[in-house]
Amino acid sequence: MESEKVPQCPLHGPGERPETLVGRRLVSVFAAWHRSGDEAAEDPLDVWLIDDQGRSVHITTGSDWCLVVERSSPHEGYEMDGCGRVEVAPVGDRTPLAAHLGEDVMAVREEFEVVFATGRVRCDSWAGDLRLAM
């Protein structure tokens, strides 16, 4: 199993070392989506990877559009007054991470790529939004 260091964010510091996921089995993924009316955003605002030992790693974007990786548990959803609401729930099949439930994390790469035996999922920030891709 391999792992590489993730660059430190100048604003948010080093956060959680993502390589702590290596060798752990992904058992659950939660995500937060912004919902306005009946429409939900295609991409989640946040994701939480939960391993077989109960450790939860939160992946999101910072106010400076950087990728933030930290250790925290999923929070409750909340209303945003007239701007919709944020819903937090298991991902079902709504992100590329869902395809890897039950698999061991084989590696974590510098650009924050989580590698499983059957594929990989890239996590990054684009224009301040969290992006997950295979």
Briefly summarize what is shown.
With 134 residues, the protein is mainly β. The protein contains no helices and 12 strands. The strands form 2 sheets. Strands 2, 3, 4, 5, 6, 7 and 8 form a 7-stranded antiparallel β-sheet that branches. Strands 1-9-10-11-12 form a 5-stranded mixed β-sheet, with no helix packed on it.
The count of domains is 1
Taking all residues together, what is the mean pLDDT?
81
> Can you tell me the overall shape?
globular
**Biggest β-sheet description:** 7 strands, antiparallel
Query: Structural class of the helix and strand makeup?
Result: mainly beta
Strand content: over 45%
Helical fraction equals: under 10%
Task: Write the topology of this structure.
Elements: E1 2-3, E2 26-36, E3 39-40, E4 46-51, E5 56-61, E6 67-71, E7 78-79, E8 85-90, E9 105-109, E10 113-116, E11 119-126, E12 129-133
Parallel strand pairs: 1-9
Antiparallel strand pairs: 2-3, 2-4, 2-8, 4-5, 5-6, 7-8, 9-10, 10-11, 11-12
